[in-house]
């Protein structure tokens, strides 16, 4: 016949005062259908500092009626208590000390109270003991060495973190300076271009001459001319939109194979640019390409192999020389770098 398993478990059974981090004492009760204690009503955990002549004092108790753990000892902030009564599975009641002191040693007793199948009271008891020792000099030295090594590792980690933070602060400062310089350069270039266009608008010949200095112009195609920037090292994405607007146009909106081929064959072939931006962005919705000026959907695509790729990291459209001037999606920030290998194309409708 199988009877209930009722044990008092202590982990560890011997504590080194000042070195042992935790002491756990737990009453564990489990049963099957043949157990004489068929219904558990309460568990009690008691302690006696003396193991020779035990004088047990109740530490904790739990009952089946309200499932509350009772005991003054649980008010100690260095102690954790836990417990539950489950008449179907397992029941338990326990306590855990953090860095247990010598008074936690001694004898422990668990009591299980309930009724049997006849409805009569039944009790079971289980005992265990905990020994306490004081560490010797060697143990203390070993522990001190471990703590010293741990502190050194932590200090190395702190130093490494501080070094990374200092590096990030330096990089952020450099980036802020670069942004300021870039903005100043863009503002200056924009002002110069605006002044130039305003001065030349009253004189068509001067306007055309100034345009030819800054751009390579195509012949007319479907009522528009296409202008490829000649300036190197002063191009960025917003500036390209502004420049095209000042010229009376916009970033080239390529909407057919014929228009695509015209721009490529008349402006791009033979140049040294690596990428040439045209209108088209999917920044608002990934995969939905929209023209910057007209806000209409891009109608024509001629992507290179495996393009577009990189998702939200690349939201602008450009001809790409290394792919035989097929389209790629490219980071809009590429133009912010004032890269002399990058250019853009404006589309300027011709007045009739």
How would you describe what is shown here?
The chain is α+β, with helices and mostly antiparallel strands and 352 residues long. The chain folds into two domains: 6-133, Immunoglobulin-like (Sandwich), CATH 2.60.40; 204-349, Mannose-Binding Protein A, subunit A (Mannose-Binding Protein A, Chain A, Roll). The protein is 28% helix and 32% strand. It has helices spanning 137-200, 204-214, 237-246, 257-268; strands at 5-11, 14-16, 22-30, 39-48, 57-63, 69-70, 79-84, 90-98, 106-115, 121-133, 215-217, 224-229, 250-251, 275-281, 316-320, 326-330, 342-349. Strands 11, 12, 13, 14, 15, 16 and 17 form a seven-stranded mixed beta sheet that branches. α1 (137-200) packs antiparallel against α2 and α1 (137-200) packs parallel to α3. The termini are far apart. It is found in: Secreted. Residues 144-185 form a coiled coil.
Give a count of the beta strands, DSSP E runs of length 2 or more: 17
What share of residues is helical?
25-40%
CATH class type of the largest domain: Alpha Beta
**Shape summary:** elongated
CATH superfamily caption of the largest domain = Mannose-Binding Protein A, subunit A
Please give the count of helices.
Answer: 4
Order of helices and strands: EEEEEEEEEEHHEEHEHEEEE
**Structural class determined from secondary elements:** alpha+beta
Radius of gyration: 41 Å
Poorly predicted residue ranges: none
Please give the CATH architecture of the largest domain: Roll
Q: What characterizes the major β-sheet?
A: 7 strands, mixed
The share of residues in extended strands comes to 25-35%
Distance separating the two termini: 108 Å
Q: What does the oligomeric state look like here?
A: single chain
Number of domains: 2
CATH topology of the largest domain: Mannose-Binding Protein A, Chain A
Task: Look at the structure and give the mean pLDDT.
Answer: 84
């Amino acid at each position: 016949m199988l009877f209930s398993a009722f044990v008092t478990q202590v982990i560890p059974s011997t504590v080194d005062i000042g070195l042992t981090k935790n002491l756990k004492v737990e009453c564990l009760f489990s049963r099957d259908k043949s157990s004489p204690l068929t219904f558990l009503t309460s568990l009690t955990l008691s302690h006696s500092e003396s193991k020779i002549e035990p004088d047990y004092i109740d530490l904790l108790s739990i009952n089946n009626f309200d499932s509350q753990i009772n005991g003054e000892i649980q008010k100690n902030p260095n102690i954790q208590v836990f417990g539950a009564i489950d008449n179907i599975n397992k029941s338990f009641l326990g306590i855990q000390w953090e860095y247990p002191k010598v008074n936690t040693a001694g004898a422990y007793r668990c009591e299980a109270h309930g009724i049997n199948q006849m409805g009569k009271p039944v009790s079971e008891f289980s005992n265990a003991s905990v020994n306490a020792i004081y560490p010797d000099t060697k143990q203390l030295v070993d522990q001190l060495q471990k703590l010293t090594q741990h502190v050194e590792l932590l200090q190395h980690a702190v130093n490494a973190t501080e070094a990374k933070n200092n590096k990030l602060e330096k990089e952020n400062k450099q980036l802020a300076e670069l942004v300021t310089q870039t903005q100043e350069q863009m503002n200056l270039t924009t002002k110069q271009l605006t002044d130039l266009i305003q001065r030349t608008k009253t004189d068509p010949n001067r306007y055309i001459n100034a345009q030819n200095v800054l751009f390579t112009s195509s012949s007319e195609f479907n009522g528009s001319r296409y202008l490829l920037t000649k300036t190197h090292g002063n191009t960025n994405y917003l500036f390209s939109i502004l420049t095209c607007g000042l010229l009376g146009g916009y970033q080239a909106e390529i909407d057919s194979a014929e228009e695509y081929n015209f721009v490529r064959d008349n402006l791009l072939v033979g140049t040294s640019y690596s990428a040439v931006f045209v209108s088209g962005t999917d920044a608002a919705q990934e995969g939905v390409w929209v023209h910057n000026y007209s806000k209409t959907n891009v109608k024509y695509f001629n992507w290179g192999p495996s393009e577009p790729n990189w998702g939200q990291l690349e939201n602008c459209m450009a001809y790409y020389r290394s792919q035989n001037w097929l389209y790629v999606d490219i980071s809009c920030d590429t133009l912010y770098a004032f890269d002399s290998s990058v250019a853009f194309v404006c589309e300027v409708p011709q007045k009739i």
